[in-house]
Amino acid sequence: MTKQAIFQHAMFHNEDKAREALEAELWPDGPICRQCGNSDRDKIAKVSGKKHRPGLYYCNECKGQFTVTVGTVLERSKIPLTKWLMAAHMFNSGKNGVSAHEIHRTLGVTYKTAWFMMHRLREAMNELNPSPMGGEGRSVQADETYYGNSKRAKSYRRGHRHKSSVVALVEPQGRARAFHVKSATAQTVRNLLVTNAHRQSELHTDESRLYVEVGKEFAAHKTVEHSWNQGGYYVGSDGQTTNAVENFFGNFKRSMKGTYRFCGEQHLQRYLNEFQFRFNRRTKLGFTDGERTAAALKGIEGKRLTYRPTNEAKS
After folding, report:
1. Are the beta carbons of 206 and 189 closer than 8 angstroms?
2. What is the pTM of this model?
3. CATH fold for domain 139-262
């Protein structure tokens, strides 16, 4: 189905249909009170009438009122739900993302509003309690890269220390996890690996000295000799590679350059969360655009994001 055909769906044009779709996604077994957690249908009533805002519920347990957006990144938003759902679908229907300018033009909102919407959706894509990567008989690839401080910038300064450091872990044919770090040191890399990867995994890296010591803490540590003299290899003697993690970095950098153009360092982790989320739900793993969007919408619960902390975000 084409994108144009998908956007003809009623939930992208009718507020009631949009609210019903969001409720069905977040409350598959019926409404749950955002104040006390009550889910007893006999103690929750839908409030109707012209005097009340659409989608309002009343909880007889705590005597509170709530809607499906309370306690989510959409709380108190004046943007119609139809536009939120369309933005979420546009955000998740391609591996390169979508710029705030395109959202601004397509949805008819201001650029500032579109920019804030994108950061709220990125916040929803942040996975709070992911399970360990790898495991016995499986491998995890690790690598670091550096982003920003382009040669075309007036403030360009030579050297990695003037760029933002990013460390990523990737399971071949599986998930990815990426981190913006202040500096890619052996201690920083170790902390990320031991808290995110199973110790029974095989660790695959390039010949960087960052991984020598931490590699001893895993079932095995195999390296690929890339070297700087054009005489390196892409596959090691035992078949180990770092191709998956390098492909992740390649897609991230191409998209940042082609779609987003610029990203302040204080926002870099949110952009990494966005690419990580889509990578972990890519078509090759059996996800459709609609399922990817639904997964992103499920992540809006339990998170709040206002404009000021977004604009002053820290990595």
Report:
1. no
2. 0.88
3. Nucleotidyltransferase; domain 5 (3.30.420)
